[in-house]
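Researcher: Let's run the pair from yesterday's discussion. Sequence first, then tokens, for each.
Model: Starting with the first of the pair.
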Amino acid sequence: MGGRLLNDVVSILVFVVLDMVDFFLCYAFKIADFLIEAEWKPCYCSSAKEAITSSGKILVSEEGESKKIVRVSCSRLQLEEISDTLYTRPYFVSEVCKSKIRHSSAPRRPTFTVNPTIVEMLQGRIGKHRILPAPSETLYPNFSKSAKTKYRFLAVDLLGFGRSPKPNDSLYTLREHLEMIERSVLEPYKVKSFHIVAHSLGCILALALAVKHPSLLKSLTLLAPPYFPAPKGEAPAQYTMRRIAPRRVWPVIAFGASIGCWYEHISRTACLVLSKNHRLLEFLTKLLTRNSAGKLEGYLEEVKNRVKCNITIFHGKDDELIPVECSYDMQSRIPQAQLKVVENKDHLTIVVGRQKAFARELEEIWKNASGLS
């Protein structure tokens, strides 16, 4: 109890200071942009209706219940749904005041944290038709010879990761990621059917891919899916943002997630100092502030009604990044899914450290799926 109180007090002090730092950095970057590039550049901390990119303009329409964003790039005109977290990320003091009012009459649920910087989004393998959630050096060597002979395995680096492009004018939406997978994997390798295995935030993309190509899907395997069903009356994206980044100094992963999600200008500064690619942290922030939380409910409903293949969910019982309750909640939305809770494993050791066992489990899933097809 004493440790929790100390964490709360220190967190309040630290994040109030960060609020002020981010506020002043906002104007510092505006001035720097004007002096260096001779133009003011709107940022996401405001509700600006126009944001300038390096290759065009982003026009935001606020009419109706959901915002729409029309992006004019050098090659195409796009209409995107955007999350209310993109332009609505209140400072800590404001959020605390609202939180006290919001939860004054409701029991407080325990807070779990997610470190978005260590989540591997669909870093895996598409084999003849398989998508694996772990790097080849950890999982691929553990597959049987028959599996390696029977299937092709292709590593997927999503936009902004690894050797994939990091386009400055990209909004890194789910649609853009799906198009990238289709153009760089499904189409050139003429994939006619596939099994999907996805880890953590990659599960959202995997669900979207399953909904878009249900007839091609042979099986769907999800590891530690980040599903946080929002209470009635709360915006899904805002609720998920608060669960992922609770603005606490401890544990360290919570602090890192909070900086990346809530403080655009501090993140930009960190990128300038620490990263060769100054847009990487900005990309991670964009990724977490897209409208994926709102779309996830729709994906689950579509999977429940349209996807006929085997669906398996794995979750480490000791996962403190994404609590096992997320998988139980997801299974309640997809009754046909089989949930396997692995004892004494967490967010990473659900695969790392048990590669051989997990490889055998995947091969069994694929074998059973082939028998049903």
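Model: Moving on to the second of the pair.
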Amino acid sequence: MLFQVGGQGTRPTFFEMSAAQQLPASLRAALTYSIGVLALRRPFLHKVLDHEDEFFSLLMLVLETHSLRITDASFAESLYGLRRRTVKIRVKKEDVRPNSGDGIQQSGLEKHQRILSVVFLVALPYLKSKLHSIYNKEREARLQASLWGNGDETVEDAEYFSGGESSLVSREVTITSRLMKKIQKIMFVCYPWLHASSEGMSFAYQLLYLLDATGFYSLGLHALGIHVCRATGQELMDTSSRISKIRSNERERLHGPPWLKALQRALLSCTYTMLDYAQTGLIAAVFFFKMMEWWYQSAEERMSAPTVYPPPPPPPAPKVAKEGIPLPPDRTICPLCSEKRANPSIVTISGFVFCYACIFKYVSQYNRCPVTLMPANVDQIRRLFHDM
């Protein structure tokens, strides 16, 4: 049994598919960074950052729907010249030799496949992001409860059993909050397994795709029965004519008085212009974000890099006081007992070395260094383990 890929286009490489899959994440990071910079001077944009998941999902919903409608490809796939094709497998078991009529036949996407593609491209990532945020909140709540104790349950129990006019309302709120907590606990237990299963399946499909063992890059494409292939030159040329045809049909379906039709045409023209330049603008935003990220990362590396300075010069030697004890010519002789040092010790305030018994007795009595006459105490005497 031999499968041959028919239809238009060729199979894209693993790196092309990986780049197309990672483009939405780069786009989201670029938009978040740009909005964060603008929010420094326009605080009302912080509301967009507070609902980042919803804002980005709405944007991707518009882009993915428009791209699948006119190019039969997702927004990221269209940038790499890729197209989605419906796979229909027909196998003849009687003849195992390659035959042009057998194998995989590809055609354009059907309406339900476009809708399901939008679900896999927009709805599932949004749901996954929300589940991840719920899991993180529950994990932080459990960590705080383990450190500080769970005081919320005590308050809720007190409100539940307290009487008064608001007892019914408080009971309803308590029951709702307890139900939500149970759902969060179930999510906390199930999410790691769901996440691990999803990542494992993605890794398995990508590995099989890399080894040419399957034509589906992901489980979603396999479930929809869709292959991703490179667009031919004729398909790229036909895209513009297809777009103009779709838009002319939309203009013909306009109804109402002339002024209303003119307004609708103006709105459609603005929408078409925004969608046409959205692709270029978003790619420019990603490029700008990557450039700024590289620039600031390089600046931080330069600032955090250790600077090699020459070793500082040694401090000047302390001056010997005129009324102090003179230093002997031999450095191994103690200035106090004029004998070879035994158990050498140093006075940290001056740096001169004496016998431990001699310097301890002198400092205890006079509270100063015998050579420099600088104030000192017995706590500033240190033992030397290598007499120089």
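Researcher: Give me one sentence on the second I can quote.
Model: Residues 258-304 form the longest helix (47 residues).
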